[in-house]
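Exercise 3.2. Students should predict the tertiary structure of the chain below and write it as structure tokens, then compare their answer with the key that follows.

Predict this chain's 3D structure.
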Amino acid sequence: MRSILCAAHAGGQGKTTLSQLVYLGLQRSGANYKLASADFVDESGRSKIGKMYPQRVTEFGVGAELSIAKKANDMNASLKYWDRLGRSLLEGGMVVDLGANVVTQVIEWARARRVSQIFQSRKAPPVDVMLVCRAEKHAIDDISDLVRTFNDQDVMPISRMYIVLNEAGGSFTSLKISQELNKIAENRTLHYIKLPRCTSELWHLMELNFVSLEEALNLSEDEAAEKFGIDIWEATSGVADLRIWFDRVYTTLKEEGVFEGA
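Answer key:
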């Protein structure tokens, strides 16, 4: 099974939401995938998505601390740190929530460890990358850097590259982002996916309380009212809107081939 990296150029772009959508979509399609996070963890040792899916997320963290590297007197500690991620990608079947603060580290690791060469010799399962951004002024420049980076097959053998346009912050119409990115991608086909804004009244409550999309989708109206401390009217419309939104997004992801080869 292939692995799927979900990445963004900055925080707050919808990366963790995308990771959940892909993970749950794969489940609905009958594929048994694992969840992983290479992102900031708090004092509990869990990332944002790790709090939403306790005991189910492999936490890779954000890299080797400088103090640990110095103490061990190992200048390659930062490279060795990410070897565990490499072993997981060699096995396949993983959705990785890849934090903006670690993308550069992972790319440097991949280049230094000759990941493309190893993947080819081991006939490793494919790796797809999904880059998500909101409709913000700096979106083109930032997402362009990620496309340029992941497009280098000497770094990491990316099979399919998706550009996920998160409409939570507005429309991308005026940005003309596809024209710019297609030039950078050269001979690679970029797959564009629009991620519509979720208008469910439960959404902000889910974010505040680290409630996973999976859990929220499985709540009855009464359970939602009790869990979030809201009335039955808000709970009923909130649950219905969330399920309609998820079904719409799942259909789009499926039509765009995200779950093919899973």
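Discussion points: DSSP finds 13 helices and seven strands in the chain. The first strand starts at residue 3 and ends at 8.
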